[in-house]
Write a structure and sequence with these properties.
This protein is an all-alpha fold and about 190 residues long. It has one domain. Helix content is about 50%, strand content about 0%. It has seven helices and no strands. Helix 5 packs parallel to helix 7. The N and C termini lie far apart (about 70 Å).
C-alpha cells in the first residue's frame, strides 16, 4: 500500500511539474505574440519578406540597433546618416549603416572595443537591456558599484523591463524576448 502511495505521489508531482512548465511556456508565448502584435501595429516591428516574425530566432546587433532607432522615431535621421561608420565593418553599403550610426550618435550602443561593431553577431540580453536603459534615460541611475552588464540588467528589472528573474545577461536573446522588452519599455516614463 505504501509503495502504491509513493508511486501515485511521484506521478502527481511529475504531472504538476510538467503541467506548470507547459502553462508557463504558453503564457510566455502569448506574451511574446501580444507584444509583437502591438509593436507591428505601431510600426516599430517589421517582419521578414516572407511575412513571418521568427520570434524563436536570435536577433543580431544591427537588427536591434534598427529597432532602437525606430523606438526613438529617428528613421529619417538614419536615412541621412547612410555613410561609413566609425567601425571598420560597417560601410555605407550595409543596409543597417544609417541605423547603426544613429544608435552610436545617440549613445545607445558601442562597438566591440577593437574598432568593429560586429553587426551580424547575435545580441545578448545584457546588451539589449543596456540599450533600453540608455534609451529611456536611466544611465545615471545605474548602480556604479556593480559590474557591466549586471548593473544595467538590475536597473532594467527595477524598471519592469525583464520577462523573468532568470535573465542570463550573456545569453543571446531571441526576437520573442526582444519584443517583450521593447513593449514593456513603452510603459516606462522617460527620464530626461
Amino acid at each position: 500500500m505504501l509503495d502504491l502511495f509513493k508511486k501515485t505521489t511521484i506521478f502527481l508531482l511529475a504531472f504538476v511539474i510538467i503541467f506548470s512548465s507547459v502553462a508557463f511556456s504558453l503564457d510566455v508565448d502569448k506574451q511574446r505574440q501580444d507584444s509583437a502584435e502591438r509593436l507591428l501595429a505601431m510600426g516599430i516591428l517589421t517582419g521578414f519578406e516572407d511575412g513571418t516574425l521568427r520570434l524563436d530566432e536570435k536577433i543580431t546587433r544591427e537588427q536591434f540597433a534598427t529597432l532602437a532607432v525606430k523606438l526613438l522615431d529617428m528613421e529619417d535621421d538614419a536615412k541621412e546618416l547612410i555613410k561609413d561608420s566609425i567601425f571598420t565593418d560597417v560601410k555605407n553599403q550595409r543596409w543597417s549603416a544609417g541605423y547603426i550610426n544613429v544608435a552610436v550618435d545617440q549613445g545607445l550602443i558601442i562597438g566591440r572595443g577593437d574598432g568593429t561593431f560586429a553587426p551580424s553577431d547575435y545580441i545578448t540580453h545584457g546588451e539589449i537591456l543596456t540599450i533600453l536603459v540608455r534609451l529611456l534615460g536611466y544611465t545615471n541611475t545605474v548602480d556604479p558599484n556593480k559590474k557591466w552588464p549586471q548593473d544595467y540588467v538590475d536597473r532594467a528589472k527595477e524598471l519592469g523591463l525583464d520577462m523573468t528573474n532568470d535573465v542570463t545577461p550573456s545569453e543571446h536573446a531571441i526576437r520573442g524576448d526582444v519584443v517583450v522588452y521593447v513593449d514593456k519599455s513603452l510603459m516606462v516614463n522617460i527620464n530626461r
